[in-house]
Structure formats: C-alpha cells, structure tokens
Amino acid sequence: MKEPTQPSRSRRWWMIAVFAAFAMLPGYFTAVFYAVWSEAQVEDARPADVIVVLGAAQYRGRPSPVLRARLDHALALYRRNLAPRILTTGGYGEGAEFSEGQVSREYLSAHGVPAEMVTVETRGKSTMQSASAVAEIMDRMELKSCIVVSDDYHIFRIKKMLEARGIEVHGSPRRLQNVSGWRRCQFYARESLAYILWRVGIRM
User: Domain 42-177 is in which class?
Assistant: First the structure.
C-alpha cells in the first residue's frame, strides 16, 4: 500500500504563512481601529496653503446637514486666517444636476468667501478618488500643505491617502453630534476596514 505523501517544504511554509496572516488580522484591525479613534480626537489645524473639505450629499443644489456642518467648520478655520484658499470635493451623484463640490462653493461664496478663493473638484465619487484629485490639483497649483475637514471618523484615512501623495496634512475633525457610542463604533470599524483594504491595494 502506498504511503500518503507529506506536504512539500514550500507548501508547508505557504500554509504557515497563511495561518500566521489570519492569526494577525484581529490584532492589526484593532491597531487600525485605535488609530482611527485616536485621530478623530485630535484637532491639528494650523496655518497651511489650503483647507480641503471632503464632500457629502447635496439635495437639489443645497448641502445636506452633514455637508453643511463640514462647510461651517471649514468657514470657521478660514475666518481664523489659517489658509487663504478652500478646496471643495465631490462629484455628481446618480442623476444629480449639481456636484457636491459645486454646491459647496456656492455655499461658501454665500457666506463671504470670494469665489476665486474656492477651488472645486468634481470628479471624486469616493474618498480615494477625491484624494487623488485633490493631490493633482494641489500639485498643479503648487500647494504643499492642507488642513483636511471631514467627519471625525474619516480623518485618519483621508490623511493617510493625501500623505501618501507627499502632502503635509493637518486634520480638523468635524465632531459628530447626537450619535450613540455603538453607532460611533460602527463608523470607526467601517473606516478601519476601508483603510486596510486601501493599504492592500483594493481600490473602492
């Protein structure tokens, strides 16, 4: 009777590597979750070349409550003279007549920011796409540093994406209001997963 063959050395090492990777995943996720949470607590606004506002939903040319809160946060930074320019992001939702970036510029202009001091990015339909477009715009305009404004749980990932493009980034999180601890944890967990997928090359 033929004896069962033993796994080859290379196959054994491959199996060990796969097992080790899966064993480390919970620890890595926990570390990223903590980093997302930690960054959400830090107000790091300081003088920079531009304030970058991440887009959110708009309703028929008017900013949603989330987008309006981000824009009001950016306005407060602008009025403190922390940056001379604002860059708004966000493309067109399905069937939308207006882009998030355009709606943001109109809102800022209506609140005293000169239109020529607001640059609009209208292609981004995801954080990754917006980060890439922002990096290209900043490079073209020779802007080296930015204050990024978004909801607090979002700051860690967008900072890492922009830093990967060689930009000096300072986070200024918009604090979530009236959100339960459980719901906040869900936001952090989702951002942690999205960051990990980005790091391993999965573009979403």
Answer: alpha beta
**97-120 as b/e: b if 16+ CB within 10 A:** ebbbbbbbbbbbeeeebeeeebbb
The answer to whether 134 touches 87, Cβ cutoff 8 Å, is yes
Q: What separation, in Å, do the N-terminal and C-terminal C-alpha atoms of the chain show?
A: 53
Identify the H or E element spanning 145. strand 145-151
User: pLDDT by residue (tens digit) across 91-128?
Assistant: 887 666 888 999 999 999 999 999 999 999 988 888 99
Query: How far, in Å, CA of 80 to CA of 31, rounded?
Result: 34
- As a whole number of Å, the CA-based R_g of the chain is 21
Task: Identify the residue whose tokens are 């952090």.
Answer: 188
